């Protein structure tokens, strides 16, 4: 399951009345799935959580180097925020983040006992620097609301959805007949297949946010240089991850073999560089080139040596680019335009962001909008 996994499903809140029929092996329960917005107790008989698998929080655990980059705190302008999404930047400029943005996400976690901090680059982490703070908060909320694990979903009669629920005893299976369904399954094949089964199309998924593998034994000697991190296998760091996101489909079409051009002196024009090198040659004519790196370049000697001595994709992706096209849902409600009472949120949609907390924010915002819409519909239905 990819980074924007079934996060929204942590907040699926069941409203309405309960009816059940049981046999020795099967129970069928009718429910409405909704979300965070409070509903008076008289209109809410019980709660239920649906998650796609017991490992729904695994990517949350490993994100941000194990610290969990919850959101980004440097984008109060929603139009600027939307520009951080290679797929979705046009569509997300509207009311999407106004309904539930980074500030709302931070407030939610703070209100639920998770203290957060904003780092210099805008990334937001729990003050503990441990992703377990986020995971424990989500799972605690799930348990409090009667969490269940949904192992499969199928279309029922009269527009209903049948959810198969995991039980501890293999002798007893439980099924929920839901009026509303929110698919927040991340970039999993299961979620895509279900969307197709329910009438939607899928933009084929390709990796996004990955590091670059470069076959160059000399490169490893430069480990730790700048915002573009050099590793034993190639290149990583924020600038590489952003490049992989914006170029995800082009790299896929090229078979992940490409010429990478890196400007290590972006403040100098090419003609200025030529002039500096010419002057350097005249000034230090008797010195070895290795010992006369121009100070104007601002690069360390070992990198200068590497450039004189001499030049991939490492498909361990963090995010998937692809999914249900945004043209097939309403971003104001996250409801399907093809099938009533069907909703989507997170990475199952053809939306992905660059590194910095933007993918989680897409999941939080979409989950909130979808769940709130479902809750309001369900509350009206039981009035």
Strand segment tally: 19
Distance between the termini: 38 Å
**How large is the count of helical segments?**
11
What proportion of the residues form beta strands (DSSP E)?
15-25%
- DSSP helix fraction: 25-40%
Broad shape: elongated
The parts where pLDDT drops under 50 for at least 5 residues are 1-50, 311-316
Secondary structure category: alpha+beta
Main sheet: strands, sense, barrel: 7 strands, mixed
Can you write the helix and strand succession as a string?
Answer: EEEEHEHHHEEHEEEEHEEEEHHHHEEEEH
Average pLDDT number: 77
Structure description:
The structure is a single chain. This protein is α+β, with helices and mostly antiparallel strands. 29% of the residues lie in helices and 20% in strands. The chain is built from 11 helices and 19 strands. The chain has helices at 58-66, 78-82, 96-99, 102-111, 132-144, 189-197, 238-246, 248-253, 270-283, 301-309, 358-381, and strands at residues 13-15, 20-22, 26-34, 49-51, 71-72, 116-118, 123-126, 147-155, 161-165, 173-178, 181-183, 203-208, 212-213, 229-230, 234-236, 319-323, 329-330, 335-336, 342-344. The strands form 6 sheets. Strands 1, 2, 3, 4, 8, 9 and 10 form a 7-stranded mixed sheet that branches. Strands 5-7-6 form a 3-stranded antiparallel sheet. The two termini are 38 Å apart. Mean pLDDT is 77; it is low at 1-50 and 311-316. Pfam families: HI0933_like, HI0933_like_1st. Keywords: Signal. InterPro entries: BaiN-like (IPR004792), FAD/NAD-bd_sf (IPR036188), RsdA/BaiN/AoA(So)-like_dom (IPR055178), RsdA/BaiN/AoA(So)_Rossmann (IPR057661). This is FAD/NAD(P)-binding oxidoreductase family protein. Residues 1-21 form the signal peptide.
